[in-house]
Amino acid sequence: MSVKLGVAPIAWSNDDMPELGGDTSLEQCLKEANEAGYIGIEFGGKFPKKSSELIPKLDQFNLKLCSGWYGANLRKNSVEEEKKSIQEQLDLFKDCDAPCIVFAEVSGSIQGDPNRKLSTRPQMERDEWQKFCEKISELGKYLEDEGMPLAYHHHMGTVIETQKDTERLIENTHESVKLTLDTGHMLFAKGDSKYILQNYHERILHVHCKDIRKQVLEKSLKEDLSFRGAFLEGAFTVPGDGCIDYQPLFNVLKNNNYSGWLVVEAEQDPAKANPLEYAKIGHNYLTDTLKKSEIEIYKN
User: How far apart are CA 100 and CA 300, in angstroms?
Assistant: First the structure.
């Protein structure tokens, strides 16, 4: 088995807050991602939306498209409406041979609202849970048939936020609904990534390696900050610069023969956290820790 190392462009430019890295060009992002040692990058707002333009741009910097975010509105939309909404991204990702779509329900999400405390995030009652799981199962089957699996991303400020939410989703949906485990979001929600990896390994398709600055996390929870407020305070960072020990997690991946992508991701202000510098910190830490867990790293 071997894993592939990718990075998220959010370190260079934040799509939710364009003022963060707004002047950073796509070319700089791709060049520095390659320079830091990554072979893949997730999709971002500055990326071309046509494969005829995107593939040559990625090839120029020896990078592969290793997935990307899709914000769904299944709580409001019908499955057919969501299929139409996702089609452009689905076609692009298929053309680029991406491994999956990182999928999250954003109806009612407070993740982008600086005035909403995390404790006020949306939640679903029993009947809505059942309908939601039925819808996402149907969409999961559709995307699996299209060769572009749905990898659900639990996320702070959304209806699927906690470990309990994540388990409930997995246990009540069709096996075509896979999971993106985000170590930073799981810890922020007081969850246990190792438990998820051990007990739901057959559904883990993608991993976001996001670290947490413990003191900022404690402040964010104590003061019930907004999600935006927490990351602007510096809650998130790259592996090797936070409090998460990844070796126990990688040991589980080794035992379960995981051979997908590990994507370094950290919402930070690029003016405070130089993207290239932190990309290198994350890459070096993952490389060293994977070696300790006797996991090989795939090379282009």
Answer: 19
The secondary structure of residue 264, as a DSSP letter, is E
For residue 48 the two structure tokens come to 């071309």
Using the predicted structure, report yes or no on whether residue 151 has a pLDDT greater than 90.
yes
One-letter amino acid for residue 240 of the chain: G
Query: Contact 43/11 with Cβ under 8 angstroms?
Result: no
| CB crowding 244-270: b at 16 or more within 10 Å, else e | bebeebbbbbbeeebebbbbbbbbbeb
**C-alpha gyration radius of the chain:** 18
Rounded distance, CA 281 to CA 239, Å? 7
pTM of the model: 0.97
User: Residue 237: helix, strand or coil by DSSP?
Assistant: strand
Contacts of 56 (CB under 8 A, 6+ apart): none
Q: Which residues of 82-98 are buried (b: 16+ CB within 10 A; e: fewer)?
A: bbebbeebbebbeebeb
Q: Which CATH architecture has domain 2-297?
A: Alpha-Beta Barrel (3.20)
The structural domains of the chain, with segments of one domain joined by +, span: 2-297
Side-chain-side CA neighbours of 140 within 13 Å: the count stands at: 22
Q: Collect all residues with Cβ–Cβ distance below 8 Å to 14 and sequence separation of at least 6.
A: 20, 21, 267
Give the residue carrying structure tokens 């991204």. Answer: 89
What does the pLDDT look like over 75-129, one tens digit per residue?
999 999 999 999 999 999 999 999 999 999 999 999 989 999 999 999 999 999 9
Give residue 209's identity as a one-letter amino acid code.
C
Helix axes 51-60, 79-95, angle to 10 degrees: 40
